[in-house]
Design goal:
This protein is α/β, with parallel strands linked by helices. 32% of the residues lie in helices and 27% in strands. The strands form two sheets. It has a six-stranded mixed beta sheet, with helices on both faces. Strands 1, 2, 3, 5 and 6 form a five-stranded antiparallel beta sheet that branches. It is globular, with a radius of gyration of 18 Å. The protein starts with a strand and ends with a helix.
């Protein structure tokens, strides 16, 4: 039986009178890639922000490694949500040095994560001069600095050219072999289809589908059916 690293049970979040997330229950297996799909505004980022402690749920619960989630679990969770949090006047190593200092981690971790994302040769180049792909990879390096068991990536290929997308795809594929589970959110079906083991489809704040990504399945048809069924009326 496959071990589960993360579960949400009937999770919900309301902003004023708008239900952003309603009764969402997902189950993520260890050392897998979970693709969270949904149109823009579906509630994907809201769900991920609750898992990373950026937002507090109105109801439901989150379980991490078999116990109720607490802020202590953030030691084993890394995330890149929206844009990479970079100091553009600093080099890649200096950006990572800020994090190791704050977290009390050894500086040896800097070289380790730079090697993982293949940015070890950027030298004295300021991150403000990095390409979008390099910035995203450095953002992932920052999210890996605490050696997490769970890595959460929210729309990581946004703004990347085809080469950057391919490089990032190969990087993400490598993580389960390093004992890192990945939750990847996207509205780009082809990206998730190429790397995910399981998927969840959110529309209108509702999880309309969750299951294993089966080879040969018409993901576009499945996605459109769910998106149309649950989308919010404007």
């Amino acid at each position: 039986m496959n071990e589960v690293i993360l579960e949400t049970k009937k999770l919900c979040k309301t902003f004023k009178k708008q239900e952003a997330i309603k009764d969402i229950s997902i189950s993520v297996q260890k050392n897998s890639i979970y693709g969270l799909l949904g149109p823009n505004g579906a509630g994907k980022s809201t769900l991920l922000k609750m898992i990373t402690g950026m937002l507090r749920p109105n109801c439901g619960e989150i379980l991490f490694n078999g116990h109720k989630w607490s802020r202590k679990d953030l030691r084993e969770i890394g995330s890149l949500i929206e844009s990479a949090p970079l100091y553009e006047n600093l080099t890649a190593k200096e950006n990572l040095k800020v994090r190791t200092t704050v977290l009390g981690l050894p500086d040896s971790r800097i070289e380790e994560v730079l090697n993982i994302v293949e940015l070890e040769d950027t030298g004295k180049k300021k991150t403000g001069q990095f390409s979008m792909g390099m910035k995203q990879r450095l953002g992932i390096a920052i999210s890996l600095i605490n050696n997490p068991k769970l890595l959460i990536l929210d729309e990581p290929t946004n703004g990347l050219d085809p080469f950057g997308i391919q490089e990032l795809r190969e990087l993400i594929r490598s993580f389960p072999k390093k004992d890192i589970t990945v939750i990847l959110s996207s509205h780009i079906l082809s990206e998730v289809e190429q790397i995910a083991d399981h998927i969840g489809i959110i529309s209108g704040g509702i999880l309309g589908y969750a299951g294993e990504l089966k080879q040969g399945e018409d993901l576009e048809k499945l996605f459109m059916n769910i998106a149309k069924k649950y989308r919010r009326d404007e």
